[in-house]
Design a protein that fits this description.
This protein has 134 residues and is mainly alpha-helical. It has seven helices and two strands, in the order H-H-H-H-H-E-H-H-E.
Amino acid sequence: MLFTSSIIRCVVESHYDESFRATSITSTFFMSVDEAATYIANGTESETWRLWESGSQPIPSEVIDTLMLMNKKRKQRLDAIIEKINNRIGNNTMRFSPDYADFRTVYTEGDYIEWKIYQSVATELYAHNLERLC
């Protein structure tokens, strides 16, 4: 049975319609408001992020660009893993790093955002029963 990423894309792309909301992005990447303000908006105050989420202030274009890049990387990872699933025989297990330190033991060059992207992909694939986590 071949899997496609169309189901996953449907979920991901819904975040970027005209009613863009920072809240859905932080949920997709399992980030708190404080994490998003620090790592996505380069140290912006958490209260500013909350204002963006509520729609009280417009989200700066550079923050939207960063979120779009995160989404693009997430889609690329999903596509690559789904391709591997389609071509593999045997077990389908993906590492799940419960914290950033654990992630860095395997992905020594990975930064905090890369960890969040990886975790988001792992969780999405697990939720669709495409991967088991270890």
